[in-house]
Design goal:
Length: about 600
């Protein structure tokens, strides 16, 4: 098999003893096929509909073979229809046979469309104009070499390099392009939001609850033009469906909590990516922050109570403690966009609401927890128990989900010394996971792989920024230690090399940033916390034509502790770097050693202005 953007080619080589049959399955859910033996072509459509899909949703395909059919027919679950050229039903398919003489290989070119059979054929002619399978394979290889070549590594082991490029591959697979190329050469798309065809781009298949954390910040560094294109597609979704999606698959779904497209848009804008309509983007973000969703799309579930009370009530909304924390972060993101556009009244209102995380903190137990409409705390309380008022985690993991105001969280916990002590406890305490309804699979995975990291459950995304909170607490050497521990323990080459779900690129994006030596703790604020790089040299070939190089000097491979950092030859005393400094190009040089330097980078990281 060899892919193109919207199709691909397959080459089948038959054993000498076989009859040369191929069977095509148009899938269940309502499908049809047509066989055109005179052009060696099979066309069809699948109309499988899920909740939230427009009624006219269809996946069209055209498959063109390079050899004549000597026999053909259709099939369904009731049997075979030899010689039939057309069939429709709940679950149908086609079969063809080729002559055994004249070679054992058959090539088929396939293209797909969500718009029409004619558009599928147009795509086929554009992307795979001939039967040269090797050419299709070479073009795909060249496309991926170009993408992976955005970051050029030196040093490290072969296993580490394979792991890094596997992670980069994962992080660039999604979101998926839904837009196609019209006859005039411009992008067009079938809308999974209103069932119509519109001009412009469209993307789907990304979980913003996961990917706002590092996947989309990675695109702002290595593919800002693609990042802007994705934001434009989000605004197309807003135009066509009335809301920004939170997990487009391919249209609205109510998977996970929060409206983290807010973060994606605000992070792009604060980093100078402005190739989209800022006023329309802000209108969409403000709607997320102010209005209740529809029956089809819930947006921020419980938003009216959140605005009225200052928290999401546990007696009305599941996973309420996590919702309160993430709505407060989303409010921060929308406020950043408002501030940048000069909407000071909105900015002040949303900045105040971004402090609502304080309403989920119970000082009696020292954790964020569920709170009812009357202000009472939910009972019983077990900080190790997953689920309930928490999304895919427990109180220990969700305590830290205040990335937009770490100084405020530090104050809530009693000051810097107590903040540090709680972080230390997170990593050193029992590794017993009370996963409850999250099931046996997660329990076995955590038991097998999470030993030695306490309640820091890297298996899931809410903790992905937590290691770097040591930078904020003035102990960056602990972040340096733990990032290497997680990279070495949980990311390995091979099919079982990743811990937990990939989650549409986030698990890999964490590794890429951490291996490069910096991480976006607070998307929406254009700075990165510094860690400890994996490789001797990493060159980021930026879209603006400049190169940003991370260079490491060390005496031994296991030297992981930062002794000093220099940016373009000038010493850097703080443990963070700005996005604009990366885009300017240059060299960020780390001197690493075997023991912590407890006097470097201890001033912490500034709050967002």
């Amino acid at each position: 098999m060899a892919p193109t953007v919207r199709g691909g080619a397959m080459r089948f080589t038959f054993p000498a003893s076989s009859k040369n049959w191929l069977v095509l399955d148009a899938s269940a859910g309502g499908s049809s096929i047509e066989i055109h033996p005179e052009t060696r072509t099979i066309t069809g459509v699948n109309h499988e509909i899920h909740d939230g899909f427009p009624a006219n949703f269809g996946q069209y395909f055209v498959a063109v073979f390079d050899r004549d059919f000597v026999q053909y027919g259709a099939w369904d679950e009731g049997g075979v229809r030899d010689g039939s050229k057309e069939h429709h039903g709940q679950h149908v398919g086609a079969f063809v046979r080729f002559a055994e003489s004249g070679g054992r290989a058959v090539t088929v070119r396939i293209a797909t469309s969500l718009i029409s059979p004619e558009q599928a054929l147009r795509t086929l002619r554009a992307e795979i104009p001939n039967n040269d399978f090797d050419q299709v394979a070479a073009q795909a290889k060249n496309a991926w070499e170009h993408e992976l070549g955005r970051i050029e590594l030196s040093g490290g082991t072969e296993a580490q390099r394979r792991t890094f490029y596997t992670a980069l591959y994962h992080s660039l697979e999604l979101p998926r392009q839904l837009h196609e190329i019209a006859e005039d050469g411009k992008p067009t798309h079938y809308s999974p939001y209103d069932g119509k065809v519109h001009p412009g781009t469209m993307y789907a298949d990304t979980g913003f609850w996961d990917t706002f954390r590092a996947e989309f910040p990675l695109l702002t560094v290595i593919e800002p033009a693609r990042d802007a294109e994705i934001v434009r597609s989000l605004l197309n979704a807003y135009d066509e469906g009335g809301w920004l999606p939170k997990w487009p698959n391919p249209g609205y779904t109510n998977v996970m909590i929060g409206t983290h497209a807010d973060s994606v848009v605000a992070d792009a804008w604060t980093k100078g990516i402005h190739d989209f309509d800022g006023e329309k983007a802000y209108a969409a973000l403000r709607k997320d922050a102010m209005e209740a969703g529809t029956g089809r799309y819930e947006a921020r579930n419980g938003i009216k109570d959140y605005i009225r009370l200052g928290w999401v009530p546990a007696d009305k909304v599941n996973e309420s403690a996590s919702c309160t924390l993430e709505y407060a972060y989303d409010d921060f993101c929308v406020s950043r966009m408002a501030r940048a556009l000069g909407k000071s009244e909105d900015a002040q209102m949303l900045e105040k609401r971004a402090q609502n995380y304080r309403n989920a903190y119970d000082p009696a137990v020292g954790f964020m927890r569920g709170r009812n409409s009357d202000g009472s705390w939910t009972q019983p309380f077990d900080p190790l128990a997953w689920g309930g008022v928490y999304t895919e985690g427990n109180a220990w993991q969700w305590l830290w989900s205040v990335q937009h105001d770490v100084a405020g969280l530090t104050s809530l916990l009693g000051g810097t010394d107590k903040f540090r002590a709680r972080l230390d406890t997170l990593f050193s305490m029992t590794g017993d996971y009370k996963v409850g309804g999250y099931g046996k699979v997660i329990h076995e995975m955590t038991e097998a792989k999470m030993a030695g990291t306490g309640q820091y459950a890297h298996i899931n995304e809410p903790v992905h920024h937590v290691i770097y909170l040591y930078d904020y607490a003035g102990q960056p050497w602990k972040a340096q230690q733990w990032t290497h521990t997680i990279m070495d323990k949980f990311y390995l080459p091979g099919p079982d090399g990743w811990l937990g779900d990939e989650d549409t690129g986030q698990m890999s994006a964490w590794y890429i940033f951490s291996a490069l030596g910096f991480y976006p703790v607070n998307p929406g604020q254009p700075i990165y916390a510094l860690g400890s790089p994996m490789f001797d040299r990493a060159q980021l070939h930026l879209e603006n034509g400049k190169t940003f190089t991370v260079e490491v000097k060390r005496s031994a491979p296991r030297d992981i502790y930062v002794q000093g950092v220099w940016l373009n030859g000038q010493p850097l005393d703080n443990c963070w770097i700005e996005h604009r400094q990366i885009l300017a190009g240059g060299v960020l040089r780390f001197q690493l050693g075997p023991k912590p330097n407890t006097s470097w980078g201890i001033s912490g990281i500034p709050a967002a202005e």
